[in-house]
């Protein structure tokens, strides 16, 4: 496995665009440290993020993992181009000629995806830990690590999404078209959501629509880390003034949401292998 991973890392590091995207991604994660000094104005009310409790333990795990997940597009481009370049430069065929099996070839890609997901998760863990101890009002051990499940959800979300990107790169040989395929898939899920909203009627419309959407790949990945913004103290204060009350919402991860994402991940990996196995290279 170490040999397979070394092969992929050498390819990536020698590719200038991949190197720039990787460095940019981790540089942007570092900028999470600047959010403490950013001021926002919401409905005429000015506030700092550090004053709203989002950098307090344990909320910081939720907030930072959500924001960091948005930046995954940079590594997604690396994953797509990593696969597409194999076709463009003929390295896939050369690897197979040199004795690498198709299974080993795909394994090398998956190991790279796993490595990126793992390093990203550790990175956001330590950034959050440093920010939390710098700004949080609560530093008791039991409180600090009480919501650490969001970090696990972040890892799974990244690995699942990168597996989808790898599948797109295997299915569509050109990186630009593969990225277009990912965007198109996202649009299709959005259209399905609109169609469901129009056609599903009843008292539990939201629940039914959300349940159905939860079985789609990108939506299921998104459900692993729900938006954290309605946790803001400022938001809740404004909501309380406007509506006269605060709507309760579940922000955690259901076990079945994890199962759905794991199932899609397995499907994408299996499809990628079957395509490689049957395709005449």
Give the topology, please:
Layout: H1 2-14, H2 16-30, E1 39-42, E2 45-48, H3 59-70, H4 73-88, H5 91-97, H6 102-135, H7 141-144, H8 149-171, H9 175-199, H10 205-213, H11 217-222, H12 233-243, H13 255-278
Helix pairs in contact: 1-6, 2-4, 3-6, 3-8, 4-8, 4-9, 6-8, 6-13, 8-9, 8-13, 9-10
Question: What does it look like?
Answer:
The mean pLDDT is 85. The chain has a two-stranded antiparallel sheet. The two termini are 24 Å apart. The chain is built from 13 helices and 2 strands; from the N terminus they run H-H-E-E-H-H-H-H-H-H-H-H-H-H-H. Helix 1 packs across helix 6 (102-135), helix 4 (73-88) packs parallel to helix 8 and helix 8 packs across helix 9 (175-199). It has one domain. With 281 residues, it is mainly α. A hairpin with a 2-residue loop joins strand 1 and strand 2.
| Proportion of strand residues | under 5%
What separation lies between the terminal Cα atoms?
24 Å
- Please mark out the parts with pLDDT under 50 across 5 or more consecutive residues, or reply none: none
Q: Strand arrangement, largest sheet?
A: 1-2
Q: Whole-number average pLDDT?
A: 85
- How many helices? The count is 13
By DSSP, the count of extended strands is 2
Largest sheet: 2 strands, antiparallel
Radius of gyration: 21 Å
What oligomeric state do these chains adopt?
single chain
Anisotropy-based shape: globular
- H and E order: HHEEHHHHHHHHHHH
Total number of distinct structural domains: 1
Helix content: over 70%
Overall structural class, as computed from helix and strand content, comes to: mainly alpha
């Amino acid at each position: 496995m170490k040999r397979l991973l070394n092969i992929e890392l050498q390819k990536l590091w020698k590719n200038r665009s991949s190197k720039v995207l990787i460095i940019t991604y981790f540089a942007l994660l570092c900028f999470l440290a600047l959010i403490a000094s950013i001021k926002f104005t919401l409905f005429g009310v000015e506030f700092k993020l550090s004053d709203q409790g989002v950098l307090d333990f344990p909320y910081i795990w939720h907030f930072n993992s959500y924001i960091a997940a948005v930046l995954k597009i940079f590594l997604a481009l690396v994953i797509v181009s990593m696969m597409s370049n194999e076709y463009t430069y003929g390295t896939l065929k050369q690897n197979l000629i040199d004795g690498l099996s198709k299974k080993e070839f795909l394994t090398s890609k998956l190991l790279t995806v796993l490595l990126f997901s793992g390093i990203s998760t550790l990175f956001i863990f330590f950034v959050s830990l440093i920010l939390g101890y710098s700004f949080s009002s609560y530093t008791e051990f039991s409180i600090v690590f009480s919501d650490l499940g969001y970090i696990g959800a972040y890892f799974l979300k990244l690995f699942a999404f990168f597996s989808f990107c790898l599948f797109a790169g295997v299915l569509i040989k050109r990186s630009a078209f593969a990225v277009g395929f990912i965007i198109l898939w996202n649009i299709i899920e959005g259209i399905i959501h609109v169609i469901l909203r129009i056609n599903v009627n009843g008292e539990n419309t939201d629940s039914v629509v959300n349940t159905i959407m939860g079985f789609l790949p990108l939506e299921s990945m998104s459900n692993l880390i729900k938006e954290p913004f309605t946790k803001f103290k400022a938001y809740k204060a404004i909501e309380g003034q406007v509506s006269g009350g605060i709507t309760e919402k579940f922000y955690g991860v259901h076990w079945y949401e994890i199962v759905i994402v794991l199932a899609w991940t397995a499907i994408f990996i299996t499809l990628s292998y079957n395509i490689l196995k049957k395709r005449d290279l």
